[in-house]
User: Fold this.
Amino acid sequence: MATAKPATGVVILRKAVQIFGELLITAGIVLLLFVAWQLWWTNVESDAKQTAAVKDFARDLGGPVAAAPTPAATGGTAASGPKDYGTPVVGEAPGHGGTIGIMYIPRFGENYTRPIVEGTSGDVLDTLGLGHYGNTSMPGAVGNFAVAGHRQTHGAVLDNIHTLVPGDKIYVQTRDGYYVYVFRNNRIVLPSEADVLLPVPNQPGVRPTERLLTMTSCNPRFGSEERIIAYSVLDRWQPASAGPPAEIAAQVARARGEG
Amino acid sequence: MYGWIFRHLPGPLWLRVLTSILLAAGAVFLMAEFLFPWMSQFTQFTDSTIGAPRNP
Assistant:
């Protein structure tokens, strides 16, 4: 009789401790699953969506995918370099979420083919990769064509932004043609320094003369205390009818699913 | 808790094992679909824009 009551209490206590322990283990497993989801699964999901977006856009474009003939092949001298097509055509910005074009960055790997989408809100950056700042110029324009992309998670489109070397080519393909930018420099700034997106970065009110491409991402790689800003300058452009630059012709064909 | 659930599942052992696997998979799916996207706003991996804060 005296032993029955404490035994019930002990049993209840044991049950409570067991349930509490199981809940703690569950919380631990849930957190581990969350880390796996965030750092791995979001990339899987975004890669699939971006590949589909690139394919849709590339199919829709039409135009030749064979490389433009080199000057030597057409009788020109090698010294004359690629043909000059004059002032770049600047397209109209699509609505929010519309695809502007495709970015090819050979430094990030020969399969680096990512869509550029209008807008920098979460719905764009968390699935479709590179988002165009709506208040900045379009590709090829005098001024600043600025895009943002995640360094980690959701495709990690700009994970290797720190590996760009001055002189690296960055290709932007739009409906109008191919814009070849050359990487110039990068800066690491505080997240509040929006002046890096100005037509002439960090010089408010100054009339731009250069055609810039600015890419922003978080810094350090697994943090967001700072932003890394990569500047590139337009080197040349060629219309869609001229075909892609020879360096990325294979990639352009692959993007369309013909490679 | 989990032991209690397992004991109260219907059917023979193989069916209860199968049911628990399905329940676990369902829980993971629900978390990946609803809980984790909500939790990710508290991490800092996704701040890659500059200037004005992200407005979804």
Notes: The longest strand of chain A covers residues 226-239. Residues 71-79 of chain A have pLDDT under 50 and may be disordered.
